Amino acid sequence: LEIVKLDENGQTTIDVPAPDNLTTWKVHVWSLTADTQVGEGDSEFVVSKDLIARLALPRFLVNGDSVNVVANVHNYTEKDVTANVTLTVEGDTVNTLTLKNNATITVKAGGHTACPFTLNAKAVGESKITLSVKAGDEDDALQLALPVRVKGIDKQVNNFAYLDKDNKSATVTL
Questions:
Q1: 171 vs 32: CA distance, rounded Å
Q2: How many Å apart are CA 98 and CA 88, to the nearest integer?
Q3: pTM over 0.85
Q4: What is the C-alpha to C-alpha distance for residues 131 and 150, in angstroms, rounded to an integer?
Q5: Bridge-partner residues for 133, per DSSP?
């Protein structure tokens, strides 16, 4: 930041650009005058949005799985909104089983609405799932990776051999 002049009460206001992520930021400042008077202060501010999209996905799918995922849309305004919800899949491992990958929903003021979509795991690998929501001038979006694992189980086989001064070599069959 730049050097900022204080008013006669030792206060000022500054604009701080903040990224578009939902978090609480802490600010700590120090001041110093030409005649070596010092001061300090701290504050917090919250970055938020009036419309927030959240996506409930499993950690992974197994090839052949079908799963219902839920898009949750939160409306922090004082008015009901009509929101367009779109779920897109990037990659060849997952596809949507629903006929449409978008929906129009109404979200009450100060409330949230769930919008379900069905996904199908069709190949091993990873796809990117993108949820976007638009309601008038408000919008939000997020992208999550969804791995698809091979059907089966991980198997661990332990084997050993004993070596000493009389047995200097051994064969281990895997």
A1: 75
A2: 12
A3: no
A4: 25
A5: 85, 140
Contacts of 150 (CB under 8 A, 6+ apart): 62, 63, 124
Distance in Å from the first CA to the final CA of the chain = 63
| 78 Cβ contact list (under 8 Å, min separation 6) | 109, 110
Residue 157 binned pLDDT confidence (cut-offs 50, 70, 90): confident
Q: Which residue has the tokens 């491992």?
A: 93
The distance from CA 69 to its chain's CA centroid, rounded to whole angstroms, is 15
Contact 54, 116 (CB under 8 A): no
**DSSP letter for each residue of 72-128:** EEEE-SSS-EEEEEEEEEESSSEEE-SS-SEEEEEE-TT-EEEEEEEEEE-SSEEEE
Higher pLDDT, 27 or 153: 27
- Chain segment 49-86, per-residue pLDDT in tens: 999 999 999 999 999 999 999 999 999 999 999 999 99
Contact 67, 61 (CB under 8 A): yes
- Quick check: 144 and 137 in contact, CB under 8 A? no
What gap in Å lies between CA 20 and CA 50, rounded to an integer? 12
For the chain, the C-alpha Rg in angstroms (whole number) is: 28
